[in-house]
Amino acid sequence: MIVAPAVRRQRTLIGVAIVLGLLGTVATLLQPILIGNLIAAVVAGESVVPPITLIALLFVADALLAALHLYLIGIAGENIVLDLRTTVTGRLLHARLPAFQRLEHGDVFNRTLADTSLARLALTSSVAQMITAGFTTVGCVAVMAWLDWRLLLAALGCLGGASAVALVLAKGVRVAAAQNRADTSDYGSALLRVLGAVTTVKASRAERREAERLARLAGAARHSGIRVTRLSAMFMPAINVGTQLSLAVVIAWGVARTATGSLSVADLTAFIMYLFYLVSPLVLFFLGLGEFQQGRAAIDRVQELAGIEQEPAGGPTTGSNGGASAAPAPAVVFEDVSFSYAEAAAPALDGVSFALPATGVTAVVGPSGAGKSTLFQLIERFRSPDRGTVRVAGADTATTPLAELRGRIGLVEQDAPLMRGTVRDNLTYAHPDATAEEITDALRAAHLAEVVAALPAGLDTELGEGGIGLSGGQKQRLAIARALLGRPRVLLLDEATSHLDSDSERALRETVTAIGAHCHVLTIAHRMSTAMGADEILVLEAGRLRARGTHAELMAGDPVYRRLADQQLAPVGAAS
Questions:
Q1: Which pLDDT tens digit goes with each residue over 502-535?
Q2: What is the pLDDT of residues 554-568, one digit of tens each?
Q3: Are 73 and 128 spatial neighbours (Cβ–Cβ below 8 Å)?
Q4: N or C terminus: which one in the chain shows less Cβ crowding within 10 Å?
């Protein structure tokens, strides 16, 4: 629950705004009475200066109070939107990875941006509007009853039916609005999906097919949006019918009673003015109710998003990530670790146990689906094991604060994700306070120093979305330099050489060997050349650790490793 606390934090501002709105309503309610007094003074031949002066002052007070009311409500609304957005984005960034990966990014974007804006209207403007409009309505009814209760009953009889219709319409608006928000999110998700793979769409000649699909989703959003508009548009006509009918009844009966002397002209004039005054707040009340119903659908969607499962907060870090200093404890230890994905029939890892020394280079090889990537996710605690213990630099990952744990680990993903911004922004993302010397060392270690020096603005060169401006290999090396900048105790390389040419790969292997003298490098190796250069190789198959050893030992003693190696190392045409 995040909406209620956000509103509570603005309750003083909202309360002051509502009080000002109610004071403005009082000023409005006094105006017909004073106008009636003005008419009575004219009829009696008395001075009209006092009532005119008082009426003018009330008009000014009413305008000032209304302006202050709207201003304060607007501030409170923007504060609530800020609160909701910062809370939701914070919870998204701290969400458990499996829960986050199940979300559609277009839906997340729509809920965070559009739904929070609708929630603001429901929680501030609509509520305040309904309160002040309700107070105005009650005040008008009270004064009208004091002026002539018979005319009031006649007017309310006509307005009551219109109000009942409006209440039914408000319920329909809420249902339609919820559907419209869902349809809009579906369209946004589909649009982001296509835009994120526009090259694939073009290469597959799927532009027309995707455009038709997007058009169908946009049409569904249009259809539900029109339903919301249709129901909302019926508010005003429903109230107008009741108002016009009540006005006709009041004028006809009131004039007849004035002719007989049972009702004064001043009272009839004031009564009719109050009837006009009653119409506006009634319309505002039901419009506010309609907006509130639409906002409730948005509030429910924001609450649902904010309820995403969170990573354990953990305690404060106990020190630095260890830098390059040696530690007596093994770099990574798996003790009888098993893990299964919810949708999978077989476990991704099943009873895996091994220990890696504080320094050195270890490669992980195995067929597709053997559990190599799962191994990395458990080390980073993106996921937690179903059974067993994972330790990094001697600390249990289940109890170590996440910031401290991930500060000991450098991760280089296979697709080397980069963000829009400068080369420096991407390089220092995890360590924004890195010194120039540290940056230079990281670039040199990743064999990227000459590349950066050749860029138009060096480290301050702007990169496009996904690192556009660098080649695939350069992006990979920049991701490696980013990981090395933190001087990790454990460096995880998810086939970091996959996009490198032969010369760059050879240079990087030499760099990895050098890095292995200061920390432990654990690399998923799809290229056998990467595995051959490692100090030790772990062979996974079907979630189990079937063998470990050097390249020569595994070639001699493990058929799975030998088969994987032969597939890459066999001379071209040898199989024919």
A1: 776 776 777 778 778 888 999 988 778 778 888 9
A2: 999 889 888 888 887
A3: yes
A4: C
Task: With beta carbons less than 8 A apart as the criterion, state whether 483 and 438 touch.
Answer: no
H helix or E strand, kind and range, residue 329: none
Helix intervals (H) in 196-307: 198-203, 207-233, 235-260, 265-306
Buried b (16+ CB within 10 A) or exposed e, 345-382: eebbbbebebebebbbbbbbbbeeebbbbbbbbbbbbb
Cα torsion for 170, 277, 21, 24, to the nearest 10°?
Answer: 180
The H or E element spanning position 493 is strand 490-494
Q: How many Cα atoms sit within 13 Å of 16 on the Cβ side?
A: 11
For the chain, how far is it from start to end, CA to CA, in angstroms?
66
Q: State whether residue 338 is helix, strand or coil.
A: strand
Distance (Å, rounded) from C-alpha 482 to C-alpha 470? 15
Distances (CA, A) of 296 to 24, 91, 285, 482, 519: 28, 21, 16, 44, 53
CA 259 from centre of chain: 66
Domains of the chain and any CATH numbers: 3-306 (1.20.1560.10), 333-408+489-570 (3.40.50.300), 414-487 (3.40.50.300)
How far is it, in rounded angstroms, from Cα 225 to Cα 350? Answer: 51
pLDDT tier at 544, thresholds 50, 70, 90:
very high
The whole-model pTM stands at 0.67
Please name which of 504, 482, 507 lies closest in space to residue 493, comparing C-alpha atoms.
482
Pairing of strands 536-541, 360-365: parallel
Q: What is the bridge-based pairing of β-strands 360-365 and 520-524? A: parallel
Strands 360-365 and 387-392 turn out to be unpaired
The residue with tokens 């189990």 is 544
Alpha-carbon Rg of the chain, whole angstroms? 36
Pairing outcome for strands 520-524 and 490-494: parallel
The per-residue pLDDT for 352 is: 93
Q: Which residues contact 574 (CB under 8 A, 6 or more apart)?
A: none
Residue with tokens 């504080």: 358
Full DSSP string of 374-404: HHHHHHTTSS--SEEEEEETTEETTTS-HHH
CA pseudo-torsion sign 231, 233, 238, 241: negative
- Nearest partner of 340 among 391, 396, 397, 385, judged by Cα: 385
